[in-house]
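FW: tagging you since you asked about this chain on Friday. Here's the raw sequence from the shared folder, copied in full. Didn't touch anything.
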Amino acid sequence: MAKYVYPAVFTHEAEGGYSITFPDLPDCATSAETLEEGIEMAADALCLILYDMGGGRSRPPEPSDGREYRLRRKPVGDANPLRHHRISEVLTTRAVKRL
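HL: got it, structure written out here
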């Protein structure tokens, strides 16, 4: 089974909640009310888009180096940049077949 790790960008929205995007996968985005929910939603969105890319339609792009992304401002509320590792933990518990 292939293991895919893509950087995700969590943006705390002024009206509350988070929007989550994947710079390497422009069609992959989601949102959530809390950071914990956002981690789960991001994992689901990533799994779905990678699954959709299967079947010979297209190959997933190579992931960019997540270290090139920097926080643009101080985290707000329950945002904690050290929690980014949780997405890979969630993804390793889900079955994403080799494309």
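FW: Residues 78-85, 91-99 have pLDDT under 50 and may be disordered.
HL: agreed, and The first strand starts at residue 9 and ends at 12.
FW: great, closing this out.
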